[in-house]
């Protein structure tokens, strides 16, 4: 891109484009990083840099960039029928086939699919359906929702109250009075210690205690991610999800699994629920469903929830809809992306490549900045600490995350540098062993450079 064009775009961006989850004034100062193309696991920016993407866009481009068969599926569907409403009994073939395919692939408890445009409105739809469900089954007092500290459930008006990230609450009058949190099952920093059973036991006890405090008759549902993503890639012990499922059953509250990040091979199997044979009451998905090639999400629900809603107001429509629910182009894209995961071998490749990813993360443990390496499948993190023994966090005034993100960009690798000095990684399922080598070489160089800065060096014990 020419310099004049770049300058024009940068100033138009500053003047008009509002970006998600940035400080608006800082963004005006900094300006946008403009991306122009992608191929495989590489992105190209407007300055002509080729960057290795270790974050799949925003944990979504699980199939990598430039998959021609997906482009063809979208083009053909656009040409044939670019839009069909699913309101008023209309439908399109790709949407119907996709719903049926998802029911085949998802945990057996989930039998019905409502399509959204992404994860936030999938969570929002789940909340609305749950409210409807309890009202229509004669339990209107069941209105309280419980989720996890460090959880992320998008940024809809209600969903962002289930989210437990301060920036999503401040000045938004959230969380709402009926939204509650229990501690995250955070192995590296868990008050219950490091023992997996103790961590699981502490989560179950915290859920029971919260439900007891609110009154079991007043609690609607518990929402969780199988691995917490935006809260810092918190990987609970194996067995945690299953234990929380069982606890919800005993407590007579709905169990909602938010697989927006963990779905579609991100942790190994198609859904993280599969690894522990967990059967949720509802499940939200998005991102890897279309691998970011078109917007789409969904909420899947059990027969029991669906039937209660179906019979809830005889003769009345269920007043929940989106113009683009079950969009045929997004559905055609999703069907092809699902084919790539399965027949195309990408799920299998993700599983086969995971040892390279895991080994690379573990090797980084010897770096002076790295306190912990953790992952499940191709979802991983490094947690940086000033003192490995005491697990002391760096002084926020160092702005370490911002410095690491900038150094990484100079070294032509993109990952997520969270505010509390956790580095998040979500490589595409098509990564090869040599691409992992390149990722860790660039990452090590980045951390070495940041460590060489005198104030950082002085902060490390
Ligand atoms: C677990 C989870 N739920 C919901 C969402 C919201 O999805 P979207 O950004 O597509 O609205 C996200 C997004 O990162 C997520 O990670």
Write the layout of secondary structure elements.
Elements: H1 3-16, H2 24-30, E1 35-39, E2 42-45, E3 50-53, H3 56-59, H4 68-80, H5 93-105, E4 110-116, H6 119-136, E5 144-148, H7 159-162, E6 179-182, H8 196-214, E7 219-224, H9 240-251, E8 254-258, H10 272-275, E9 282-285, E10 297-302, H11 303-310, H12 328-341, H13 346-363, E11 370-376, E12 379-384, H14 400-410, E13 413-414, E14 416-417, E15 422-425, H15 433-451, H16 454-459
Parallel strand pairs: 3-13, 5-6, 5-7, 7-8, 8-9
Antiparallel strand pairs: 1-2, 2-3, 4-10, 9-10, 11-12, 12-15, 14-15
Helix pairs in contact: 4-12, 5-12, 6-11, 8-9, 13-15, 14-15
The structure holds pyridoxal-5'-phosphate (PLP).
Account of the protein in words:
There is one protein chain. The protein has 16 helices and 15 strands. By secondary structure, it is an alpha/beta fold. It folds into two domains: 33-66 and 345-459, Aspartate Aminotransferase, domain 1 (Alpha-Beta Complex); 69-341, Aspartate Aminotransferase, domain 2. A seven-stranded mixed β-sheet has the order 4-10-9-8-7-5-6, sandwiched between helices. Strands 1-2-3-13 form a four-stranded mixed β-sheet. The chain has a four-stranded antiparallel β-sheet with strand order 11-12-15-14. A hairpin with a 4-residue loop joins β2 and β3. The relative contact order is 0.14.
